[in-house]
UniProtKB/TrEMBL annotation:
InterPro entries on file: DNA/RNA_pol_sf, DNA_pol_Y-fam_lit_finger_sf, DNA_pol_Y-fam_little_finger, DNA_polymerase-Y, DNApol_IV, PolY_HhH_motif, Rev_trsase/Diguanyl_cyclase, UmuC
Cofactor(s) in the UniProt record: Mg(2+)
Domain UmuC: 5-182
Stated name of the protein: DNA polymerase IV
Marked site positions, Substrate discrimination: 14
UniProt keyword annotations, A-Z: Cytoplasm, DNA damage, DNA repair, DNA replication, DNA-binding, DNA-directed DNA polymerase, Magnesium, Metal-binding, Mutator protein, Nucleotidyltransferase, Transferase
Length: 349
């Protein structure tokens, strides 16, 4: 049977919460982000987007684009509180809710409602009543298309992609809309003259496999409306990490190690809380010119202790040649496994 998948995404989430909590901000360009000159924009209201302000943009650039913007520091605790209220409304519709982030979820409503449009309206109204916020809904027969649909008509959108609209409805879209095609992949395709999904559609499977390996098959299938991923109620934690923008840019590895030490302690604590060990250590750096680099190392055995994480992180750091100063450093661990009962009791003692 054809599934009915819904993707729900709050509009300008952090900024919308700020406006709701302080109605004087309504209609103004509100920008939430690190407020120091070195911070980046988390998000901004749709009014601020008109000036070209975007998530992840350095705050100083946002200030130059939108000098009248109202810049606010994030209040993560408050956003989490609102997120909880939204998710409890979603779970009142169906137990098949997969959280993707603080403001976004997939719902499998196949067996829970006959009319997906009225369900969307119910969710929109309930969320508005409880939190005062708007959201956008996408509905389709698989996850990929539902997510594309929710982004179709933001803010406060409701878009349905039906089987008989495929694949033509996707043709005019830029290839960056294909989930998983990041900047580098998009550039690779642009370089051979592929910009729209229509052009991507014409590429033979072999070329996509040559370009992207196994993921090439997924791209080939998805733009043809094939995506068999199910809605996962218990979303697995895939990685645990921390990152920080440095107080000043540096290429002194000893200085960077101090950050890694603090991150290792925090990551180890989170691993213990969740009862996990990890096998892969990933070091991320962003350079002064905003280039991201990651380098990872997979270990022969699982680790969880702060000193082990720190040691491995330092080894990865020492392998890197810094050609430029670093402005942000991050450390994360992945390839997680649940600890056995024996290990858990060891931690307890
Ligand atoms: P998004 O859903 O990507 O963005 P949004 O809800 O602000 O706007 P849209 O209407 O386009 O959905 O992200 C949700 C929240 O996550 C966002 O409000 C702030 C946070 N966030 C960051 O902190 N940094 C980022 O780079 C992004 C993309 C989001
Ligand atoms: Mg959102």
């Amino acid at each position: 049977m054809e599934k009915v998948i819904m993707h729900v995404d709050m509009d300008a989430f952090f900024a919308a919460v700020e406006v709701h909590d302080n109605p004087k901000l309504k209609g103004k360009p509100v920008i939430v982000g690190g407020t120091s000159e070195r911070g980046v924009v988390s998000t901004c209201s749709y009014e601020a987007r008109k000036y070209g302000v975007k998530s992840a943009m350095p705050v100083y650039i946002a200030k130059s684009k939108c000098p009248n913007g109202i810049f606010l520091p994030p209040r993560i605790g408050r956003y989490k509180e609102v997120s909880k209220e939204i998710f409890s409304i979603l779970r009142s519709v169906t137990p098949y809710v997969e959280p993707l982030s603080i403001d976004e979820a997939y719902l499998d409503i196949t067996n829970y409602t006959k009319n997906s449009v009225s369900t969307s309206k119910f969710i929109k109204e309930a969320v508005m009543k409880k939190t005062g916020l708007t959201l956008s809904v996408g509905i389709s027969y698989n996850k990929f298309l539902a997510k594309l649909a929710s982004d179709w008509d933001k803010p406060n959108g409701l878009t349905i992609i039906r089987k008989n609209m495929m694949p033509q409805i996707l043709f005019p879209l830029p290839i960056s809309k294909v989930y998983g095609l990041g900047k580098k992949s998009v550039k690779k395709l642009n370089d051979i003259g592929v910009f729209s999904i229509e052009e991507l559609y014409k590429l033979p499977k072999d070329i996509l496999i040559e370009f992207f390996g196994k993921y090439g098959i997924e791209v080939y299938d998805r733009i043809r409306g094939i995506d068999n991923r199910t809605v996962q109620i218990l979303r697995q934690t895939k990685s645990i990490g921390r990152e920080n923008t440095l107080k000043r840019d540096t290429d002194d590895k000893n200085e960077l190690k101090e950050y890694l030490k603090a991150f290792s302690i925090s990551i180890s604590k989170q691993l213990l809380n969740k009862g996990f060990s990890a096998k892969t250590v990933i070091l991320k750096t962003k350079t002064s010119s905003f280039e991201n680099h990651t380098r990872s190392k997979t270990l022969p055995s699982y680790i969880y202790k702060p000193e082990d994480i720190y040691q491995e992180a330092c080894e990865v750091l020492m392998e890197i040649t810094l050609t430029e100063k670093v402005r942000l450093i991050g450390l994360s661990v992945s390839s997680l496994k649940e600890n056995s009962l024996k290990q858990i009791s060891l931690f307890d003692s």
